[in-house]
Every structure is written in C-alpha cells, then in structure tokens.
Backbone:
C-alpha cells in the first residue's frame, strides 16, 4: 500500500511540487503497523535531524515520518503558493515562520510542554522555538598564521583592511537573496549595529564569495578554500569541525545573533495531533539537558543564568518588517551595492 | 382577657430585606456592567494607542526617493504591537489609493482614526493615519493602515469581566448579609418593647422608661400616654367605687344605730325579731360595701406597695382581738394557736390586715355556730405562713375559681356574701409575691386557708 502511495507520489510530484526539494527520506514506522505518516517540511539536513526523529519514533512506533528537506524560501512556495498539506514545518528562518503564522497558515497547539516554554520562545501558541543557535565566524587557523584571531567585528574589519591580499577571494558568507537564514542574520546584524554596513563594504571590496548554506561554507574552510566564513550556524560548525584543529569557531564579542529554530503545524495539516506530539517531543528535548546525541543546542543557555544571557531574536511581529516587499528590496539593493562592487 | 387578632399587613423586616436586597442586586448589576464597559473601553483605547503609534511611525518613515515614494517600515512599528499580546498584525501603505507595500485589501476608517472590522477571517481593530507628500510638484495622498486581531484584548476583557462578576457577586452577598442584619437590628427595639410590655403583670401600667430609638419615641410616648390615661380611668373608677361604698356605709351605720336604739325600746318579740333581721341585713350590706372598698384599696395600693416589716403572728393576734365581737355574735372561739411562731415578712399592713380579715370573715361565716377558728403562724420553705382553719364543711369539691370576682361556691346556701372576699385575699397575697392555698382539713374537718408570704426576716 505504502509502496503504491510512494510510487504515486513520485509520479505526480514533479507536476504538483513546483517547490524545489533538496532531499526526501521516509523514516518507516518502527512498530508493526504504520498508523500515521507525518509529512515534515524542514530546512534542517536529514542526517542532522535523524536522531531526533528516531527518538520520537521510539516513543511512537506506529508513526512513519516523511522528511522533506528544502530551503527556507521554498517553504513559502510550498505552503503559501502550492497550498500543499504538511503536518509540520521546521525552519531556521524565524521571520518566515512568523509570517506563516501571522497570515493564518498555522494552527495553535496547546500542551503541558508548550506551557513550559518560556514566553520568548513561542508565538501565538503556533510557532515554537526549540533550539538556540548563534551566528558565528569560522576561521581557518592557517590563514591567520602570525595574526591575532579577531574577537569582534571591528577587529575583523581592521585585520581585513590591514591584510587585503591575504584574504582576497577567501571570505565566504550567505547570499541573502537565496538563503532565508542568511537574510535573517544580515537584517538582524543591520539592526544591531552600524558595523554591519562597514563590514559589508570591506567584505565586498575583498571579493567575498556567496553561499547558499552553512554546510558548504564550513566545508570550504575545512579544505582551506576559505579563510573566513561569516555568519555561519554555530551548531553546524561545531558538529562538522568536531575533533579538527585546523579551524576555529568565534562567537563575536560585540554582539551575538541568536536564532531560534522553530516548528509550526500548518492549518491544513492532516495529522495535527501527531504533529503536536512531535512538537512536544522537540520542546521537551530542548528544555532538557544537552544530550550528547542531540544535534542542536538546548533552548536555555547552558551554565548561564537565563536572565543575563544574551537574548535571542524575539519571536514576534517585528520580524515581519524585513519581509515587507519594499523594505526587502531596499535592503537587498543596499547589500548588493556594498557586497558586489 | 381576650386578645383581638389583628390582621398582619406585611412585615417590616421582610419589606426592609426585600428592598435592601433588590437595591443591592441593581447596584451589583450596575457595578458589573460599568466595570465591564470601562474595561472594554480601556482595553480598546490601549490597543488603539499602540496601533496609532505604529501607524504614525510608519507614516513618518516615508520618504521620497527620486520620483517615487518609498518606506522602510521601522522595526519598532510592528514589534511594539507584539509587546502587548500575541495578536496577528496587518499593515498597508497606500499612495493615492494604490497599494505601495503591505497586505492587500486591508481597509481602514476613512480620514483616519480607529475602527473595528474584519480581515483574514479575524476580528481586527484597525487604525488609519493619513499624510500628504509632495512629489515632484504634485501632492500625493499617503495612507497607512495598521490592524491587529483582538484576542489579547478579549482575553484581558474576559479576565476583567470575571473580576467584575466576582466583585458584583461579592458585593451582592455582602449587601444581602448586611441587609438582613440591618433589618433585624431595625426590628429588634420593636421586639424588645413588645417583650417588655408582654412580660408585665396585668396591673402594671407604669410608663416605659427603657431607652428606645428616636423613630420609636413617638410610639413609646403614645403608649405611655395611653397607659397613663388607662391608669387614670382605672383609678377614677376605683375612686368611684370607694366613694360609692363609703357613701353607702355611712348612712347604713346611722340606720343601724337607729335600729339598735329601736330594738332596745321595742318589747314585742315579733317586732324585735324583725329589727334583728334588719340589723343583720344592714351588717351584710355594709360588709359588702366594705369589701368593695377593700378591693378598690387593694388595687390602688398594690401599684406602689409599701414595704413595712410585719410579723404574721402579731398580725394574727391583733386581728383576732379586733374581730372578737363579730365572732362572739356566732359564739365562735377565735384563737391563735399556742405553737405559733414569729413569721416575719414585708409588706403593706393595711392590705395584709384586710386580707386576713376577709379570710376570718369567711371562716366565721361558713363555720358552725359555737365552733372554733384557729390561726397559726409558722415558717416553712422560705415562706412566712399564716393558716386559718375552721370546723365547717370546707370548700366545695372541684371548684377552682373561688378567687374570681363575685365568684361564690355551691355551698353558700342562705349565707349572704358578695364573692369578693377571696378575690381581695388572692390579690393582696400575689402583690406581695406570695401564694394563696385553699384546702380542706384532711379528716373531714373544715376549710384551711394558707397565706404564704415571702420569709423576709
Ligand atoms: N371557710 C370557708 N368554708 C367553706 N367555704 C368557703 C369558706 N371560705 C370561702 N368559701 C367558699 O368560697 C366562696 C368565695 O368566698 P368569698 O370570695 O369570700 O365570697 P363570699 O364569702 O362572699 O361568698 C364562698 O362563696 C364559699 O363558697
Ligand atoms: Mg367572703
């Protein structure tokens, strides 16, 4: 039956799905029967997310998960334009998640787990943050041979200006026109400090290379292609650079942009209850201690007082501002002007 | 005494309670609605203020770039809306009615201000702010509309409504309790007055002197006035009786004297018998008049009872001496028993003498000729007791009401009497706080009357 369904899927999907799928994996039910197949649309790589799904399936053996990886921009295409029904949408682009909820594409979910979430980690009982991930700078040790490692953005600007030849063409950052997360990081940078535009000028003048995703940037640093990757997801970097000594992850000390990866249940979900169970699983996990096999950092800062720790980007309607058509156009124009000289 | 049943026309207490409770209910409902309405307006106002601030900051961010108007929506314009509640937010910027940026088909009140409407399937509060910009010499109408759903406002209102309801119900319950207490308190002096009057003895016509609430003073003084009048009219009638008795007795005494003089002169036995019969009738009449007088005196004097120390033994001896002539007429031996002892009490000597004289009078009247009447005084059970025994046939069986006014027993036969004697005795004894006991001698002997008075040494 399921095979037939999948076959049907493959047959019709090129027609039905105009959105671009990066990867699609079916996590078959671990129990004897599959009562429900959860259709999860996510920006997180399959192998990164797999441990979470497996532990969820350990508790819910009759649930199969159809895990579809897309870019955050494609989520908007799939949910808003195609109106395709998913059970859960997981994204690192907080602003897009807020927009989905604000525009009525999400449904509320209430449980003891969601009640336990701190105020700032949820919006409208529809968007639930379950990680806290910093935007970081990854540096190649070799490239910085003989130089002090920068601790702040002004540091970085100064070093780049003093050694333009060493770094020309060896800096990478997000192409904010392609990556929703990159756009989120850039816009938050621009809110936080004027340094952002100076840094962009400097990066632009050194022929910075633009990437779609954190993974590719980190790989290039590892391979020595890049000396600096700016605004990389810290969690990915930690995972990939595990053990290696050639690169170093810097959390800038002037300010850190903290992103919440979040989940929402679409209004047209076929299995909202099971999706709710998965949300609860994510939240319970996120509020627990950092487990070794958990691919994402916990929601509450480890070993730090939640009150004094830097606060993450607030889930709220403010995030809609940079999705405004005019504002986005103006921002991208300004960014292009400085980045693509 | 017969109590006329007065039909009750409602109850003051109930009326008071009903009025207070009804008033409290109206006030509580009013309180509820006022608080709720106020809260609705406050919540709406608060939301309007934020919305207007948001729209104004968007409007202020508009600028002309080249030939076109552009706007960078300020971050704070929308984030401030998220600071109050998790409500959905919509906005639109229109230039001359054309959407520049934002949500399509969002409509706000013409000419600015706030209104309630619907958007995207939700109730929204929507404000509009308008501004005129000059672009390359032409004036352009810019309109900023910001809307927010109202679930936060509704949640606040629901909370406040609950508080208001609790407040209203609490207020109501409190008012009901205090209303009942107040009604009871208002009626209590009435009850107290009723009680104090109901507890009084039948002849107690003293004015009410206990303090009463101002509102009841007219009633109390009317009551006192009424009792005053009643007392006056009672004493007038007692006076009248006394006066009448006195007027009857004086001429009777004259007639009796004349009859006695005539008796001495008349020789013929049948004439003497007629005269003796006449004297007896005169005596009887004057005794009845005397009893009427006594009765009036008792009623009058018992209002303000004198408290003289009196020994019943002495009283018995003195009275025996005084009534000796009357007893002799029937050859009766009137004695005070040898084993008598002093029996002290307190009271009015005139009343007590009058009581004892009436008892002795009966004993002489109903006892056999040439018999004996024995008085005995003693103390028993905190009572000073004076007993009077005769050797007659005793009280008739089964008659309880011999002490009633003008009540006479079945045993009177031809013996004349008014039926007032025992009435006087009973009244005197009870005004002194004592008890009158009528009984017959166990061994077929005559009547035994006990005057039991408080033992007060
Ligand atoms: N000593 C007595 N022996 C018998 N009967 C008596 C005696 N004293 C009173 N009574 C009864 O009690 C009644 C009421 O007495 P009293 O009030 O003195 O009225 P009265 O003597 O004028 O008849 C008498 O009519 C009589 O029947
Ligand atoms: Mg008598």
Residues:
């Amino acid at each position: 039956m399921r095979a037939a369904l999948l076959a049907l899927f493959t047959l019709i999907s090129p027609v039905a799905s105009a959105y671009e799928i990066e990867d699609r994996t079916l996590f078959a039910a671990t129990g004897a029967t599959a009562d429900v197949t959860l259709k999860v649309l996510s920006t997180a790589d399959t192998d990164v997310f797999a441990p979470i799904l497996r532990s969820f399936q350990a508790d819910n053996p009759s649930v199969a998960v159809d895990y579809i990886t897309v870019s955050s921009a494609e989520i908007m295409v799939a949910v808003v334009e195609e109106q395709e029904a998913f059970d859960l949408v997981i994204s690192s682009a907080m602003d897009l998640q807020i927009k989905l909820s604000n525009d009525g594409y999400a449904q509320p979910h209430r449980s003891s787990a969601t009640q336990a979430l701190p105020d700032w980690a949820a919006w409208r009982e529809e968007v639930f943050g379950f990680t806290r991930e910093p935007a970081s700078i990854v540096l190649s040790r070799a490239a910085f041979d003989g130089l002090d490692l920068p601790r702040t953005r002004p540091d970085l600007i100064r070093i780049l200006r003093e050694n333009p030849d060493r770094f020309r063409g060896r800096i990478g950052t997000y192409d904010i026109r392609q990556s929703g997360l990159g756009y989120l990081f850039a816009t938050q940078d621009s809110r936080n400090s004027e340094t952002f535009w100076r840094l962009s000028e400097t990066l632009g003048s050194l022929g910075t290379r633009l990437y779609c995703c954190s993974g590719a940037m980190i790989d290039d640093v590892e391979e020595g292609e890049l000396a600096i990757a700016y605004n990389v997801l810290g969690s990915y970097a930690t995972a990939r650079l595990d053990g290696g000594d050639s690169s170093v992850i810097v959390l800038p000390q002037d300010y850190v942009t903290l992103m919440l990866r979040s989940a929402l249940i679409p209004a047209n979900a076929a299995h909202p209850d099971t999706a709710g169970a998965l949300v609860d699983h994510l939240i319970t996990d996120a509020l627990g201690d950092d487990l070794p096999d958990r691919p994402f950092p916990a929601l509450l800062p480890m070993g730090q007082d939640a009150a004094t720790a830097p606060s993450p980007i607030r889930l709220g309607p403010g995030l809609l501002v940079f999705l405004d058509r005019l504002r986005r156009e103006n921002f991208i124009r300004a960014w292009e002007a400085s980045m693509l000289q | 005494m017969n109590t006329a049943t007065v039909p009750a026309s409602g109850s003051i207490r109930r009326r008071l309670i009903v009025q207070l409770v009804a008033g409290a209910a109206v006030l509580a409902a009013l309180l509820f609605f006022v608080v709720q309405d106020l809260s609705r307006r406050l919540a709406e106002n608060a939301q309007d203020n934020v919305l207007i601030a948001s729209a104004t900051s968007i409007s202020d961010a508009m600028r002309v770039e080249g030939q076109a108007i552009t706007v960078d929506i300020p971050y704070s314009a929308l984030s401030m809306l998220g600071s109050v509640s998790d409500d959905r937010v919509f906005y639109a910027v229109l230039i001359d009615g054309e959407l520049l940026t934002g949500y399509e088909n969002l409509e706000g009140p013409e000419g600015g201000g706030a209104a309630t409407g619907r958007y995207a399937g939700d109730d929204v509060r929507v404000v509009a702010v308008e501004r005129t910009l000059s672009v390359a010499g032409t004036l352009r109408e810019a309109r900023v509309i910001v809307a927010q759903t109202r679930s936060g406002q509704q949640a606040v209102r629901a909370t406040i409504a609950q508080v208001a309801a609790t407040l209203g119900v609490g207020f109501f319950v409190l008012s009901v309790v205090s209303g009942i207490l107040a009604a009871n308190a208002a009626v209590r002096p009435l009850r107290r007055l009723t009680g104090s009057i109901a507890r009084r003895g039948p002849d107690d016509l003293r004015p009410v002197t206990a303090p009463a609430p101002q509102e009841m003073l007219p009633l109390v003084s009317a009551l006192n006035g009424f009792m005053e009048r009643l007392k006056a009219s009672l004493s007038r009638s007692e006076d009248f009786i006394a006066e009448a008795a006195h007027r009857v007795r004086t001429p009777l005494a004259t007639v009796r004297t004349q009859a006695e003089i005539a008796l001495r002169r008349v020789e013929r036995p049948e004439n003497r018998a007629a005269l003796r019969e006449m004297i007896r009738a005169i005596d009887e009449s004057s005794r009845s008049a005397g009893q009427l007088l006594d009765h009036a005196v008792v009623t009058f004097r018992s209002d303000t009872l004198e408290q003289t120390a009196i020994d019943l033994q002495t009283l018995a001896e003195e009275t025996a001496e005084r009534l000796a002539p009357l007893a002799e007429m029937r050859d009766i031996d009137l004695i005070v028993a040898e084993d008598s002892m002093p029996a002290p009490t307190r009271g009015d000597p005139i009343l007590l003498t009058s009581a004892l004289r009436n008892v002795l009078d009966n004993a002489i009247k109903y006892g056999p000729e040439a018999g004996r009447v024995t008085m005995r005084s003693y103390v028993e059970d905190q009572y000073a007791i004076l007993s009077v025994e005769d050797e007659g046939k005793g009280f008739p069986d089964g008659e309880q009401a011999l002490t009633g006014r003008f009540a006479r027993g079945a045993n009177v036969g031809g013996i004349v009497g008014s039926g007032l004697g025992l009435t006087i005795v009973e009244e005197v004894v009870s005004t002194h706080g004592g008890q009158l006991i009528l009984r017959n001698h166990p061994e077929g002997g005559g009547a035994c009357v006990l005057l039991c008075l408080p033992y007060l040494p």
Remarks:
- The CA atoms of residues 44 and 145 of chain A lie 34 Å apart.
- Chain A touches chain B at residues 101-104, 123-125, 191, 314, 316-318, 320-321, 324-327, 330 (CB under 8 Å).
- The first strand of chain A starts at residue 23 and ends at 27.
- Residues B 362-363, 366, 390, 392, 394-396, 402, 408-409, 411-412, 417-423, 447 surround adenosine-5'-diphosphate (ligand 1) (CB under 6 Å).
